[in-house]
Amino acid sequence: MELSAEKKRIVYTLAVGKPKFAECALGLGRSLKLIGDSTRRVVITDQLDFPWEKSFDEVIAPEDPLNWIFFSKLTALERTDADQVLFIDSDSLVFRRLDPIFTYCQGRGLCVQGERITAGDWYGSVEEACRRHGVPNLPQFNGGMIYYERTPECQSFIETCREYGRRAKELGFQRDDPLIPDEPCIALAMAQTGQGHLIPDEMDFQNSAVGLIGPLRLDVETNTCEFTCRRYDVRFVRPYIFHASRYIYFVKYWRQLRRLAELEEYEATHGFGHMSSAHKFARSIQKRILKLRGRL
Description:
- The chain is of the alpha/beta class.
- The chain has one domain: Spore Coat Polysaccharide Biosynthesis Protein SpsA, Chain A, CATH 3.90.550.10.
- The chain is about 35% helix and about 25% strand.
- β11 and β12 form a beta hairpin.
- α1 crosses α8 and α5 (about 150-165) packs across α7.
- It is elongated and about 80 Å long.
- This is Nucleotide-diphospho-sugar transferase domain-containing protein.
- InterPro entries: Nucleotide-diphossugar_trans (IPR029044).
């Protein structure tokens, strides 16, 4: 029997190396479960001593060398039966169901969110990169969210991105560590081939609160993620996906992971419709007040 289109959508993430990445990925899975998102979830991990089965539908082992790990984001079409893939970085929390992202991206091939830039510093001088590679601009984006789909055109474009990754040093893209960067390689492939789709940044499918202004209001229990930040412009944001990125070093993010774990434990230890003693007591008092007022 052929699977439905819904079941061939997946969320794809990585948790390779340090245990902290597994803790982050569990937070991602738990946040999706908490908001009732039904998209099948797949994690690539070498951290097997974690309760993946509660938050993920499939666990697969890494195959790529560590320096190529960013390009493991683009392997879901070979490693799963998915037709539509939404890669989300493990250090992310989701606050809105993902169907609108899949719907928007369907038929557009590989999609990333950002803006086209002609100046500044992004893996080196943008002006120099544009001049060197003969392109008018580069689509700047955060690789914490990448959509792609099972079409011959998209699969061919993904291979082009991989080829650029294999040539990253030659193309002038390097990091301060041995990891091969995916973002500038994908961006250059988009700029030179005209393939791929750049989701306007103001759609806020994803935001990492770069340039935060004021407080970061983040609370998984009340499904709150909102803030003002200065990215390409100053805007108030309520993203579908909060990519913690640099906020992985903030206590507030780890408190959210802890609360998600507590809610998962609560589900395991309390039955349907459970009412706490405090809640029952409050109901009893308020029932008496309502009777005295003639409401009951």
